[in-house]
Structure formats: structure tokens, C-alpha cells
Amino acid sequence: RVVYVNGQWRPFRSAVVHVEDRGYQFADGVYEVCEVRGGRLVDERRHTDRLVRSLSELRIPLPLPLSALSVVLHEAVRRNRVRDGLVYLQVTRGVARRDHGFPPPGTRPSLVVSAKRIDPAGGEAAARAGIAVVTVPETRWARVDIKAIALLPNVLAKQAAREQGAREAWFVDRDGFVTEGASSNAWIVTDQGELVTRPVGPDILRGISREVVKTVAAAEGLTLVERPFTVDEALAAREAFVTAASQIVMPVVRIDGQPVAGGTPGPVAARLRAAFHAHAEFS
Ligand code: PLP
């Protein structure tokens, strides 16, 4: 395996960044995770658009022109011979003497791009069985619409899930509404057959898969209502599922140990998952 680090392709085992990289010292950076399918990137454009937005909100310069970045992303896939898997991209504010304020003008942002293979059979098996989620209080900062590498609450939430035999954690805000998962957006299908997911805003990440599922839902003639939902509503829902580039559409069958929808994956999630890639863009 090889990894792109600031202009060079390095062997995976020996790829390094500087100890005073601001990503390392301050989590001062952003990232993207893009699905690779059949050797092609899924919705690359939407991911780079979101990257540009995250960077601009944090006033971190773009490390490369977008055309050059696209070449690096495709090279990561090609050089690592990834047919199905993920590309990971991280940009930080660069290397500078430790000081909370921004580094001197002209400091170059750091760019790391890696790619890894994932056997799609694992995801398909998980989707047939459905996953368990646990709920945790929302403790993240007020700008989680920025895809920042500062992920401590997400790390703790995911570990809490793991320790309870679950695959994902749902953050729940002070009013009892689910915001999103530790690394996914959260959805339910109500008894009326409506799809419900939280509207975008500073309190959730605008998931690319969330956007794709909106398109799929419209094409499938499903009604979508963007509003917050509670854990109780999810427990009483006909179906629940999560979306993320690494999960596509993943049915949720247990919440805090209680079965959702009889504890088996439902037809709506299956339909959305099956139709997903017909509505994604490949490059
Ligand atoms: N919400 C959070 C907190 C995430 O980390 C992710 C993805 O990792 C998502 C939502 C889903 O976003 P996407 O569909 O772009 O992968």
C-alpha cells in the first residue's frame, strides 16, 4: 500500500507527518471519506464540494487545485488496486511552531490521501442482519456541519456502542431528539410510511449519502419529511436505518437493546440500498 503525503507517495508503513502538524496538536483539520466501487469514486464531486466548504469555514487554504486533487484521489485508488473500498483524505492547517492562533501566512496545509480495500460482502451481510445502535447524550461542539478531524465525542460514542455489542451510537440532544450517528446520519420510516430525517443545520453533518437517499426516495415515490425525531419514535417506527459513504444504507434493528420493527430489517431500507448507486455519480 502507498499513501500520498504532501506531494509524495510513501509506503504505507513508513508514511509520516511532522510532530508539529496542527492536525496532530490541535485536531486543526478536516477530512473526507469517499466510497470506491468497481474501481471508481462515488460522488467525488459532492465530497470535494463539502471539503471546500469545511476548509473555507475554518479558513484553511485548499492544499491543491481541485483538478490536481482529483488526480491524487484516483491515483490512490489505482496505486493501491482498490476495486471496492474507501478513499480517506485529510487536510490540516499545516506544520508550525505550537501556538493556538493561526500559523504565519504562507504555511502550507498538509494533505494526506490513502485508499483501502473493503470486501463488499461484509456490508451486505450486515445489511441483511441489521445493526444495533445505542444512544448517548449529544456532547459535540456547535459546528458539526464542518467535517473536522476533532472527533473525541464520536470516538467515545463508538466505543460505548462497541462495549454494548452495537455498531453505531446515536447522539441525542437535550430535547430528546436524535441528531445523528457517530459516523452516519439517522433515519426512520414512520407508520404512515414517511421517511424522516433531521434537517441540515449546524447540528448534523450534511451527509453525501443522505443527499443521495433523498434523490432515491423521490425516484421511488416515497414521502420525505425533514424534521427531528425522538428515540421513542424510532423505537415505535416501522423501520430505522443509517446512511454513510462506508455503510450506504444500513438497517437498524435494535436501539439500546430494544427491537425496532420486530428486530428485522425492513423493505424500505432494502429498496433504498438496492437503488442507491443508480443515483450516485461515478468518476
Ligand atoms: N454524520 C457523521 C458524524 C459522519 O461522520 C458521517 C460520515 O462519516 C456522516 C454523517 C455521513 O456522511 P456521508 O454520507 O457523507 O458519509
UniProtKB/TrEMBL annotation:
Pathway: Amino-acid biosynthesis; L-leucine biosynthesis; L-leucine from 3-methyl-2-oxobutanoate: step 4/4; Amino-acid biosynthesis; L-isoleucine biosynthesis; L-isoleucine from 2-oxobutanoate: step 4/4; Amino-acid biosynthesis; L-valine biosynthesis; L-valine from pyruvate: step 4/4. Pfam families: Aminotran_4 (PF01063). Acts on leucine, isoleucine and valine. One of its GO terms (biological process) is amino acid biosynthetic process. Keywords: Amino-acid biosynthesis, Aminotransferase, Branched-chain amino acid biosynthesis, Pyridoxal phosphate, Transferase. Transmembrane segments: none annotated. The keyword Transport does not apply. InterPro entries: Aminotrans_IV, Aminotransferase-like, BCAT-like_C, BCAT-like_N, Class-IV_PLP-Dep_Aminotrnsfr. GO terms for cellular component: cytosol. Its EC number is 2.6.1.42. This is Probable branched-chain-amino-acid aminotransferase.
